[in-house]
Amino acid sequence: MEQGSDLQKLSGVTGSRRDSSTRKTKGTSPQSDVSGEKMEIAEKSSCSEPVGMVGPPLVQRPGIPTLPPRQLLSTLVVTPIGETIASSAQLQTLLESMIHPQNMGVDVLSCLPAANRGVLLCIRTPEMRYIIETAINIHTGLKDVCVAREPRGRNPRILVYDVPVTGGNRETEEAAFLQKLRYSNSISDETDIRALFWRPGRGPFQHWVPSVAPEYFHTIKDTNRVFFGFGSLKFREYLEPTRCYKCLKFGHLRANCGASQELCTKCTGAHSYKECTAPTVVCRHCTEYNRRRRTGPRVRTDHSAISVRCPIYIRERKKS
Ligand SMILES: [Zn+2]
Ligand SMILES: [Zn+2]
Ligand SMILES: [Zn+2]
After folding, report:
1. Where does the record place Polar residues bias (predicted)?
2. Cα 268 to ligand 3 centroid, rounded to whole Å
């Protein structure tokens, strides 16, 4: 059901667009200037209310600014080899018992469950990542049961529509889906295909989003169906950045979220969007961006945090 509300929010994206365009035609109406933040942006972006002004205002509505790429923390994916390790939690426990980052001068900032019983480590610097990656891959107690590598962020992702649900837990569903996909399309074992997550589909079906090896993607990209058992399933390339609909950050999913509270998509408050009473929409990503960068150009904040117009979202999308 959690996933369902995510979808509602996704479809709410067009709604928020409409909201902001209505506001645009209203201009700087006094009631829209609730917070200081909004007031400042309204002053910068429009010179309406020409009190005693000569000639029409010349300042144009600014376009979406191009933001510099975000400085990424280094990440490392550790994936089990073979069947020895049954879950992400088990792998984490094993790594914690064998590897002691503090003795190597490595700061591991977080450890999250990842696809295929793996874990994703967030590490402070690329140098530290190299140290811990090497340590895992040469460790006598680890090198035969797991492998550490940089995430292959570049693999194309596809959304496969309406996959029949088998009724097992997430790991069983995932394994069954991948196995059938491989078998039905004669995809070799060496070809990298990973299930990333699923979304609710029609009725008893769910849409799966796997990442697929670029070589394989190349062979299917001009089609829109993959074989699946005695039938076939429709798919499209999936270009959305990974994002969490709980804390609204990019790069992880709700299932892996460490935040204690749901954050609002409509304002910067710590409540669900369903309970929001804020009179205007304010994007938390852009508010945060402006807050961190006290100098330099500011970005507009009058859109929802899940708007497709959000410059932070656009930057994430380019990255993926
Ligand atoms: Zn989150
Ligand atoms: Zn709110
Ligand atoms: Zn934004």
Report:
1. 1-14
2. 11
Ligand closest to the CA atom of residue 253: 1
Domains of the chain (ranges plus CATH)?
74-149 (3.30.70.330), 158-237 (no CATH), 248-319 (no CATH)
Quick count: other Cβ atoms within 10 Å of Cβ 85?
20
From start to end of the chain, where are the E strands? 74-80, 108-114, 118-123, 146-149, 158-164, 193-200, 205-212, 225-228, 231-237
CA of 222 to the centre of ligand 3 (A): 33
pLDDT value of position 64: 57
Q: What is the pLDDT of residue 216?
A: 87
**CA 301 / ligand 3 centre spacing (Å):** 6
Give the residues of the chain that fall short of pLDDT 70.
1-73, 152-154, 319-320
Residues that place a CB less than 5 A from ion ligand 3? 283, 285-286, 310
How far apart CA 228 and CA 281 sit, in angstroms, is: 43
Q: Position of tokens 């300042």?
A: 59
Chain centroid to Cα 62, Å, comes to 27
Which among 245, 242, 291 is positioned nearest to 264, based on CA atoms?
A: 245
DSSP 55: S
Q: Of all helices (H) and strands (E), which one includes residue 98? A: helix 88-98
End-to-end CA distance of the chain: 27
Percentage with pLDDT > 90 across the chain = 42
The rounded Å distance from CA 289 to ligand 3 centre is 9
Contact 59, 86 (CB under 8 A): no
